[in-house]
Amino acid sequence: MAEGGGGVFMVEGGGSIRRRLYKVTRESSFVDVGSFSPGLYPLEKERRDAAAEERSFLQHFFLGEAEEVSADDLAAEKTRRREQQKEAYQKVLLEKNEKREELRKEFMAQAARLSHNPDYAYPNGYMMSHGLSYALKKNWRKAVVASKQEDEGASEEECVDLEPLFFDEAEAVAEHAAAEEKRKQKEQKEQEEAREQQMLLRRWKFHTSVLNSILDYNHKRKRFYFRRFNFADLSTFDLDEESLLGPMRYTGYPLLLDGTVCIQGEERFLLNDSINVLSVKIASSEVGFPINVYGTVIARDSLDKKCVYLFRRDRNHCQLINSEDDLLILTGPKRGLALTSVIYFEMDLKIKSGQGKNDRQLSNGFLTLDAVARTSWDKMKVETDSLDTKLGVLEVTYAIVKRAVEATIAIEVVEGEFYGKITACTTNIRNCMVLHDSNVADVITCDGKRVVQMLRPTVAVFVKEKLEVTGVAQTGVGEVESTINFTPRASGVDEDEITCGSVKMLVKVSWSIIAR
């Protein structure tokens, strides 16, 4: 806009409305109006460039067309413009500082984006400002610390005696109760964990003490060894507890055999392997023979790993061993032994002397019969294992029985008086096991029946062979022998009579599987 030959103009440019008054005469070339620039440039070169740009703009469009004004008016206008520019600059600085403070507070609230010590943050709150001197940085840190302390104090004072706008007392009580319950549960859990840790520690100490009690030193082999079974948690496992599993556990079950497979309803399963302990003898003695022996020989199988006694005599009922050919009189096992993983034989035998304090340890240790090494065997065989201990060597002879069933034998005298031996064996393994010896056991009367006392009543039998029971009766003219056979079954009872001279006996065999 122009008035007359020279006057007041409104110039639009740079994206914003700029209002300036200029004095331009037709005779003069151009008035320097660089000082009217609205921006306060930090460098003189940039300010001069901006002034030259405006001067060039006015020369091209308004030269010779502006109205002449007085020098005083021009000076007043320049002063007013400078004040406006100063106010605008201060306003911009204030807005920048406010934005910077908001940004700093925002990042101060995000702990993950700050350094470990936020009191020493830089002015922007989260990154380094390379343009600040050390003194400015130090002053800024102090200001940040003071500002935080003031904000914390003010917030505490402002929040005194204040309640939430929508305060629900019932909800607050419920939240408090829930928090208290959670705290109690946490304390209870910690107490239970502490008790459990103490219990485990006590159990470990007890287990260790039992291990130390069964640890011994073999002077012959010059090494330490465990005298007893130790492959269990001895804090809860009783080494002296007798197995509660008895014979004939599955005699009354409706079980059928299909080869080596047992059938119960729709279920089919293979029979377990087993062993027959044929004999235990003292193969050598460093103190010579004869000796009076007492103590225990036990077996542990995988069914419960508890004691199944094979030989058990106290000091008052010791057995006289005259030579290395004499066998220990076995009185077990009372049930079939399952050869599914490992069977352990523990020996604890002593030699009786004149006084109890002078009794010597003949043998103290255990043997291991591993079933895994024998899983590929198809044939049954007899094995012997020996235990070399303090004063002698013990030999254990046993027969491996594949796919076995348990036969429990009971004998009743029907006619005559029996005195002699009763043995049992199988058709494949002819080694006999003594079931009764009248020199050791008698015929007793029970419920009006004369029952033969059995030393060891059970025999393991392969399902594809036969069980043989032999009676040898001593008469006035000599020995009379008789044998009867039984075909194995998975369950049930078989009976048959055997006659030895004038003696007639009823043999009863109860069949059962050993385990499933």
Key words describing this protein structure:
516 residues, Immunoglobulin-like, six-stranded antiparallel beta sheet, 4 helices, DUF6598, coiled coil, DUF6598 domain-containing protein
How would you characterize this protein structure?
- This protein is an alpha+beta fold and 516 residues long.
- Among the domains are: 273-401, Immunoglobulin-like; 404-513, Immunoglobulin-like, CATH 2.60.40.
- It is built from four helices and 26 strands.
- It has helices at residues 44-62, 71-108, 134-158, 169-213, and strands spanning 10-13, 16-19, 215-218, 223-226, 256-258, 261-264, 267-270, 274-285, 291-300, 308-313, 319-321, 337-338, 342-351, 360-370, 382-388, 392-401, 404-415, 420-426, 433-437, 443-446, 449-452, 458-462, 467-475, 478-486, 492-500, 503-513.
- Strands 17, 20, 21, 22, 25 and 26 form a six-stranded antiparallel β-sheet that branches. Strands 9, 10, 11, 13 and 14 form a five-stranded antiparallel β-sheet that branches.
- It is elongated, with a radius of gyration of 54 Å.
